[in-house]
Amino acid sequence: MKHLAILLCALVVMANPGHADELIPDDVVSAMTSADVVILGEIHDNPLHHIIQAEALKAINPSAVVWEMVTEEGAQRLADKAISDPEELARILKWLESGWPPLSMYYPVFQASDAPVYGAMVPRAAMERGAATALGADAARYGLTVPLPKVEQTEREADQLAAHCNAIPEAALPQLVAIQRLRDAVLTRAILRAVEDTGGPVAVITGNGHSRKDRGIPTFLSRLRPGLKVFVLGQSEDGVIDGEFDAVIDSPGIEREDPCLAFETQN
Q: Which residues form the signal peptide (predicted)?
């Protein structure tokens, strides 16, 4: 029922743009519109988070939008198309095969800006082969050849173990941390390309984990392009969020199946 209520709220917001403006505080809008890069975090399956992202894009009027959920190839296919049909968009982006929540949640975000789309999704095969395959010579530039400090590595592995319901072997944790760092780096590379190509501002659609200032994309940007003005919006549920952000907008949580049930059925 809670999930349905949020979907209905999203429909009301889309039908009443004046009300949608109230979802983002004025000071946050002001900060976003003065930044070179605006990272818009989300919990992937919360519909209201995507409505807020769509309103943010309207305020920012970006010159490019970087998507965690779109591959480079998908972005290239999209570049030559004028899409007004969600089914056609899903076909071009191969959305059903991607494993992301339904495109209906993200469609308002796609509609909110006609700026070029930059893809930053790392294909599963590339994740399995590692950073050297996915980034080549850029792996060293993005710091992926250097181990994390021991304390940070331990913290990240603990986060991964908790995220997987304490149900995976500890030997798998370093690889999961490496994949997270790789995805941060690929997103950063797409952002820098978008800035170079278009001059900015650039908006980024991605999960809260990649957005966080203490370990995600912003740490790469501050090292590689310290002159860029970056603003990071996190989106929490019921006041809960991990990490550091410039601002956080809270939304009601949605009803979900217990993710740990999947691990129990495997045992």
A: 1-20
